[in-house]
């Protein structure tokens, strides 16, 4: 069977990826030690292998153990997660996402004005 292809990451997968992005190329022990959540070595190893099968990491045999490195950037993973959220929760409408943020008071008029100015400086569409 081919590699598992999914762009979105589970909560635990994201924690593992954040460790790799922060540390750079790392082995299981280094990733395990860097996590806030205490996980068994075998759990971390399993998650790294899942991420490798999904194409998010690559692994290289160094001595008797594997070292893992990211094949996707944090920005790319974030973009996929936002697109997935917009597609699943808001029918593909970014405007509906923004309206939801406004309705739930997670963003206010001052923040919207600041974002509008930032967009204008970037030339509109970015």
From TrEMBL:
Offer one example of a GO biological process linked to this entry. negative regulation of DNA-templated transcription
Q: Which UniProt keywords apply?
A: DNA-binding, Transcription, Transcription regulation
Q: Which InterPro entries match?
A: BlaI_family, WH-like_DNA-bd_sf, WH_DNA-bd_sf
Q: Which domain of life is it from?
A: Bacteria
Q: Please name the GO terms that the record assigns under molecular function.
A: DNA binding
The cross-references to Pfam families, in alphabetical order and at most eight, read: Penicillinase_R
Q: Which family does it belong to?
A: Belongs to the BlaI transcriptional regulatory family.
Q: What is this protein called?
A: Putative transcriptional regulator
Q: Which source organism does the UniProt entry give?
A: Tunturiibacter lichenicola
């Amino acid at each position: 069977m081919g590699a598992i292809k999914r762009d979105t990451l589970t909560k635990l997968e994201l924690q593992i990826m954040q460790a790799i992005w922060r540390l750079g190329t790392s082995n299981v022990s280094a990733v395990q030690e860097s996590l806030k959540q205490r996980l068994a070595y075998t759990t971390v190893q399993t998650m790294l292998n899942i991420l490798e099968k999904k194409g998010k990491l690559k692994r290289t045999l160094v001595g008797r153990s594997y070292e893992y490195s990211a094949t996707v950037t944090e920005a790319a993973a974030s973009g996929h997660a936002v697109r997935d959220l917009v597609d699943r929760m808001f029918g593909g409408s970014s405007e509906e996402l923004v309206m939801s943020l406004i309705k739930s008071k997670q963003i206010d008029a001052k923040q919207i004005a600041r974002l509008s100015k930032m967009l204008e400086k970037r030339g509109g569409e970015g």
